Structures are given as C-alpha cells and as structure tokens.
Amino acid sequence: MTANKIRVVVVGAKGRMGRETVKAVLNDPELELVGCIDRTLQDVAVSALLGHEANGVKFSTDLSKTLLETNADVMVDFTTPATMKGNIDKAIELGVRPVVGTTGMTPEEIANWNQLCKDRGIGGLIAPNFAIGAILMMRFAQQAARYLPHVEIIEMHHDQKLDAPSGTAIKTLELIALEREAMQQGHPDEQETIAGSRGGDYEGMRVHSVRLPGYVAHQQVIFGGLGQTLTIRHDSINRESFMPGVVMGCKQVMKYEGLVYGLENLLD
Asked: Is the pTM of this model over 0.85?
C-alpha cells in the first residue's frame, strides 16, 4: 500500500463504466486501485482490464472479503440496480465509503443509507450523473424554471440502459420542482392516440426517454414561454466524460459524514 493515498475498490470493473473508472483511479496520484470486483472476473482478464500487469491489485468476485483484505477507503459501484443496493449495505457495514453511479433507488433507501453512513462516521455519494457539464445543465435548468415554468425533458441513452427515465432526468425534475408549483401543461383536453405519446408525468412536467444504439448519455431540457423557447442540452460523447466527477467523489467522501445525493452538492 502507498501511504496517504485513498484506497479504492471498483465494483463492476469489467463493465464499460467500470473499465473507465479503473483507468481514472490508476491515473490519479491521490488514489490507489486496490481491488476490482466483477461477477465474471477472471485473472486472465487482468492485463486487458488494467492495460498492464496487476501490480498488487486484488481481483475477486467476493466484495466483502476484498473490502476487508484491502483495507479499502472507497467503493466505486457501477453495476445494476439489483446488485448495487446490497453492495452499498456491505460497504457501509464495513466502514467503506460508497461512491455510486448506478441509479434506481428510492428516496427512502437514500435516507436510510444517509443515516447508516452517519452512524458509521463515514461519507458517501450517489450521483445520477458524474459529468460536470450535466451538473451545470441541471443547475441552469433549475434557475430557468423560475421564469419559464413550462418544461419538458427528452433524455437519450444507449439501448442497454435498464431504467427509464434516467436518474439524471429524475434529478433534473426534482430540482425544477423546487422552483415551480405543480401545474398541468398542454391543452386540458388533449388525448393520446398512442398510449405514452406525451411521456411520463412529474408534477405536470413531461419526460421522454429514448433508447437507441449509438447514444451514450444525452439530455435536453426544453422550456416554453410566450413567443420563445429555451433549450439547455448536455451530451456525453464518451464515458470518459464522467471520470473527473468520479475522481472528485472518491476524494470528497473522505471529508464528511453522511450520504450525499447528487454531485452538485460537492461543487463550489
């Protein structure tokens, strides 16, 4: 182990986000990759995953054992909603700080993990989106809603994404809802000739989910006003765009107690 470095275990290390996270941790001088977890991880894949030899990194399918044996400080999780919840429970129980990019949890679950983190005296982070530009998009949208309350969201992701709408869209809706009263949008007598055409409804705001090959993560927030529209859009062209936020999250969770929901809470 290298003294004073933050020891990081990456869960879902063979996935697309996991591989980018492994590279980001290896390339940051303040972080040390000490473990990689994946349900299909085999030692023969080590060099392909890291880009070089293992250099003491522990590879395993056993999360609890790895967290203990590596004396991990932080667990980064990019798995699935079904797997992620158990991983967070294990990490907090062992005093390891969770940094989670997987979405699909309820407000009640987030509140429970927040209390558990406080009880253990550790920090934690769940971020629907780790791209700094996406965080700015959400902030700008929240500000715009004060003046243009009629709004719809179109979010576009790759066709392997399991949840809809995306966690980013939900977080954006929640932030906008802080600035506007719930209201009906569109004509009061409108009818859908094809079910779902008007999208999901969140306090009168409509959200539309697109799932197609070729996309990574994209969202536009469209505001309508008298004689004008305003579109705020963010595009993640590749998964590398999320890594500065992931690295920042790994460092920031060492500094506070409790679980934070949303990377925007860690920005100045």
From this structure: no
How many angstroms separate the first and last alpha carbons of the chain?
Answer: 32
| CATH for 132-237 (3.40.50.2000, 3.30.360.10, 2.30.300.10, 3.40.50.2300) | 3.30.360.10
Distance CA(29)–CA(51), nearest Å, equals 17
103 belongs to an annotated ligand binding site: yes
Which candidate in 58, 85, 157, 234 is catalytic? 157
Is 12 marked as a binding-site residue? yes
Name the catalytic one among 23, 90, 118, 161: 161
Catalytic: 150? no
The SS3 call for residue 9 is: strand
Tell whether residue 129 is among the known ligand binding residues. Answer: yes
CATH class of 6-126+240-266: alpha beta
Over residues 196-208, the pLDDT tens digits come to: 999 999 999 999 9
